[in-house]
Every structure is written in C-alpha cells, then in structure tokens.
Amino acid sequence: MDNKNNQCQTCRFFAKSGSKGYCHRYPPQACVVDEQGISATLYRIPEVHETGYCGEWQSEQQETQADKLEMSECCKNK
Predict the structure, then answer these.
(1) 21, 38, 63, 72 - which has most CB atoms within 10 Å?
(2) Three-class DSSP labels, 6-66
C-alpha cells in the first residue's frame, strides 16, 4: 500500500510544534504518574512522526458530518 499521500503531515488532525508533530484526532489522554508516593495526573497528546500514518487519516479539506450540519437543520423543530 502506498501511503505517501496519507501521511500524518498532510492530515487535518496533525499539528507541528517545533520539531515535534502531534495528532489531535482525539482528546488528550490522561496518564497517572506515581513517583515516590506523589501522584500526578498528566494529559498528553500523542506525538507522531510527519511521515507516519494510521487508518484514520483525513484530508485537510475533508468535511466531517458536523461540518455538513447546517444551523437550519438544528432549528427545524423549534
């Protein structure tokens, strides 16, 4: 399978910060860290490589179902 066009760097959920890339497909993940009896909850966004890929890639121009929903559709039953 040729994934040159479906790489993270061309996905609508990809964001680059400095030299790192992050996937914003889902909300941040909570991670509980316990060091020496002190617990802390950290929230992280998955770090990805620009040329990586997954099964959920979407074009930057691709519309989601929510994007297609018009305000008039929301207000029909008022």
Answers:
(1) 21
(2) CCHHHECCEEEECCEEEECCCCCEEEEEEECCEEEEEEECCEECCCCCCCCCCECCCCCHH
